UniProtKB/TrEMBL annotation:
UniProt source species: Telluria mixta
Pfam assignment, any one: DAO
The protein, known as: D-amino acid dehydrogenase
InterPro entries registered for this protein in UniProt: FAD-dep_OxRdtase, FAD/NAD-bd_sf
Residue ranges the record marks as coiled coil: none
Keyword tags: Oxidoreductase
Enzyme Commission number(s) of this protein: 1.4.99.-
Length: 410
């Protein structure tokens, strides 16, 4: 029975560990933090949006990005740095900003989204839905401009097309912005949940699995290579060795990959979230809402409102930028003034490990015993179960259910 070390205790690492355990491997999980799910998984948008998977790179995005940079409350902030990773990533991102590439990647991500939906459903006997506030909320994307709304409505299989008044009728939390809306597109079957609670619940099940070898809490520092294989991973607590290794450590994956001569095309897209308690008389959204032009997500998770937004390209900076948080808070109060108790907001920031084409990287590397599950960007929670199941199949030599072109290390 092969022993595998999974590096990373976020939602991607934990799901990888579970699917490998179920596939017959013995697994050790290495996580640098004292607990699981405390990095990018901790307070993200809580979206399980299996159909709303459009890549960030698309035709027209560079021009939009330039406009956003000059908007006071724009969704994008860019801080140029003397960082080769930043400029290589930007060059690759711009190369992907073509309609034909976007369509191809979107189709692949839709296949991955459907696989992920089924894989998450298969976990229900193991991790009950109530353990992590899972709710079939549906997803409503609202548009402030008629041009954007008409373009979205014209797409094949767009979903239910609602005018502004219909959006408010279905989701009363939008009443304050009805006069600012052109309309919205609704899709059922999309869910919201607490990603951190999911991580904690799954970690408990992993800990009780008969093939689990244990959690090791220490920082992975580098891979040790010998005879064309990974012979170990050096950590802050010493050397760990196994038959195989899975890299699923978010942004830390890039540094660890470099220690083995691998160049992983991932860059941190910093995002922010606000969490506020919902009082008895508040009118919080029941449907998961995305404000398309402002790129702000609203989700009711249990008795709290979660708002997630913004992309800051500022390197590995996790500080809470007061100006960005104040801007987001003002927008939230304007859009949904009665949705939660905004005097009790808890702010958060996380680094989304994104690839230039928005597709995760799954599978083999030039080393026969090193495997990847990285680069999920803002869709880590959405895709985690799907990529974990794919990884387990690939490691066992089984054919994937669809072609993985665009989803593997090139």
């Amino acid at each position: 029975m092969q022993q595998v070390i999974v590096i990373g205790g976020g939602v991607v690492g934990l799901t990888s560990a579970w699917w490998l355990l179920e596939a017959g491997y013995r697994v050790t999980l290495l996580e640098r933090a004292p607990g699981v799910g405390t990095g990018t998984s901790y307070s993200n948008g809580g979206q399980l949006s299996y159909r709303y998977v459009s890549p960030l790179a698309d035709a027209g995005v560079p021009l939009k990005a330039l406009k956003w940079l000059f908007q006071e409350h724009g969704p994008l902030r860019f801080r140029p740095q003397f960082d080769a990773h930043q400029w290589r990533w930007l060059a690759a991102f711009l190369a992907n900003c073509r309609a034909d590439i976007n369509r191809k990647t979107t189709n692949k991500l839709l296949q991955l989204g459907e696989l992920s939906r089924r894989a998450m459903a298969s976990l229900e006997p193991v991790v009950p839905l109530e353990a992590f506030e899972w709710r079939d909320a549906g997803k409503l994307v609202v548009y402030r401009t008629r041009a954007a709304f008409d373009a979205a409505a014209a797409k094949p299989n767009a979903g239910a097309v609602w005018e502004a008044s219909e959006c408010v009728a279905h989701e009363p939390a939008l009443a304050a912005m009805e006069d600012k809306l052109a309309g919205g597109i609704y899709n059922g079957g999309e869910a919201v949940a607490d990603c951190y609670a999911f991580c904690v619940a799954l970690a408990e099940r992993i800990g009780a699995h008969p093939r689990f070898s244990g959690f090791v809490h220490g920082k992975a520092q580098r891979f040790v290579v010998g005879n064309g294989r990974i012979t170990g991973v050096r950590t802050s607590d010493g050397m760990l060795s196994a038959d195989a290794y899975v890299l699923a450590a978010g942004m830390q994956s890039r540094m660890l990959g470099e220690s083995a001569g691998l160049s992983l095309p991932i860059y941190p897209l910093k995002g922010y979230s606000l969490t506020a308690p919902i009082r008895q008389d508040d009118v919080a959204p029941e449907i998961s809402v995305t404000d398309f032009e402002r790129k702000v997500l609203y989700a009711r998770i249990g008795d709290k409102l979660r708002v997630a937004a913004m992309v800051d390209m500022v390197g590995e900076d996790l500080s809470l930028n007061a100006h960005r948080l104040d801007s987001l808070t003002r927008q939230v109060k304007e859009t949904m003034p009665r949705a939660a108790d905004y005097t009790q907001i808890t702010p958060w920031a996380g680094l989304r490990p994104a690839t230039p084409n928005s597709a995760p990287i799954i599978g083999a590397t030039p080393y026969s015993n090193l495997w990847l599950n990285v680069g999920h960007g803002p869709l880590g929670f959405t895709f985690a179960c799907g990529t974990a199941s794919l990884l387990a199949n690939l490691m066992r030599g089984q054919a994937p259910p669809f072609g993985l072109d665009g989803l593997m290390l090139s």
